[in-house]
Amino acid sequence: MKEVHHIVLLLLVILFSVYGKFLVLGPEHPVVAIAGEDVVLDCQLVPDISASNMVVRWLKSGLESPVHLYRNGESDTVAQHKDYKARTELFKAELTKGNVSLRIKNTRIFDEGTYTCLVDDKTDYEETTIRLKVLGLGCEPWIQMKGYHKNGIQLVCKSSGWYPEPEIRWISEDGHNLTQAETQYHQDSKGLVNVQSQIGITRDSTKRFKCLVWSELLKTEQEAVIGISDDIFPADRDWLVPLLVTLFLLIAAISAVIYWNVKQYRRIKELQLQKSIIELEWKRMCECTVSVTLDVETANPELEVSEDLKSVRWTWTRRNLPDTEKRFTARRCVLGSEGFTSGRHYWEVEVEGNEDWSLGVAAESVGRKRGVTLSPENGLWTIERYNDQFNVNSSPPSPLPAGQIPGKVGVYLSYESGTVTFYSADTKSHLHTFTGNKFTEKLYPFFWTWDVNKWLRICSGSDLVL
């Protein structure tokens, strides 16, 4: 049967090649991914003609916006579904070979579903569907004593991070399953399943227990073992348990009061010390303030730079400007006029009202005629905001708490130290620092905005938060 399938496929390839057509092929069986890891959905043109000038759409059933859209020689992030921002990419070097496979980074349970790989050469289009199955490989279980119950104690076994639901069971020292166990399942915000099971044991039970968590689909199991001593069980005399409980509660209360007072004292001292350090560091950093202006010769034709060279916005209208080597044409970016090859430099940018931007530092050699990923490996040390998402553009990107989104961002470059640091200038609080860099070329202030008609404004000396 498999040989017949290959013969039919070969005939189709020959037929399509003769008439200038192509096929889009993907795996027949579901693709399996582990939550938190990257996965590649294979999709190939047959024959392996170049897809560089074609339109490639990756769609997912149930979503109106595309998971990934490639057209006009670059990825269109504006049309992309928000849940896949900065998490998908094509293998651009492979497009000339007809490889239009999609990489999904940091796979989530909610990524599971049916995907469509659609390729359009402007005269015809072909597509194929691929099924993605996402699994969660949970952590090792752990056992703890929950407390006393009647004439025995309760043991609780917990494990987290599974998908789909695993089985959990207790096994006694002699190998028997303890069927009286009570099991609960809970799905967290990431779609992963947390499981716990509790069981009551008495002095007459065996003294060693195993908690076994098993996933039939993953063909894997995790286990934890606990040994119980007779000394743990409550004594036969009725008055002993209340006495021990009372003594325990009394000791716990006294310990809690002492601990709370010590913790509060240390916290006050730590806050005072941190405040002094922050004030000293902020004063030292503001002494390195530089006057940054925008270099209009580097500005993307869709950007408008103010007359004082301090503000920039995206107008959506593409102006007829000379396409020089300095000008960004693939990204809506602009650089500062002055670059730095040494020293420490600080400037602030007002981003209030603009929900789509990226700020930081760019190397002089950064690619300007093609779309590049914002990462230190590509000569870009930046943070960005996209709607309510606030990220550090590292490899891979990492989120910053949404509550930290500032109205004014401070950028501090220490060339010799190899660091680029970002601050919320409103609160003088630290956002992120890129460390471990060895700068060897000129670095420029970097600005990128894709929120239509919303300004980014470089602050003057009188606007700085001192």
Structure explained in plain terms:
The strands form 7 sheets. A 7-stranded antiparallel beta sheet has the order 19-20-31-22-27-28-29, covered by helices on one side. It has a 6-stranded mixed beta sheet with strand order 2-11-10-5-6-7, with no helix packed on it. By secondary structure, the protein is mainly β. β25 and β26 form a beta hairpin. Helices cover 14% and strands 37% of the residues. It is flat and about 90 Å long. The protein starts with a helix and ends in an 8-residue tail after the last strand. The chain is built from 2 helices and 31 strands.
Summarize this structure briefly:
With 466 residues, the protein is mainly beta. 14% of the residues lie in helices and 37% in strands. 26% of the residues are buried.
Topology:
Elements: H1 2-18, E1 23-25, E2 31-34, E3 39-41, E4 44-46, E5 55-60, E6 68-71, E7 74-75, E8 88-90, E9 102-104, E10 113-120, E11 125-135, E12 142-149, E13 152-162, E14 167-172, E15 182-187, E16 193-202, E17 208-215, E18 220-227, H2 240-286, E19 303-305, E20 311-314, E21 333-335, E22 344-350, E23 356-363, E24 380-386, E25 389-392, E26 398-399, E27 408-414, E28 419-424, E29 429-434, E30 443-449, E31 456-458
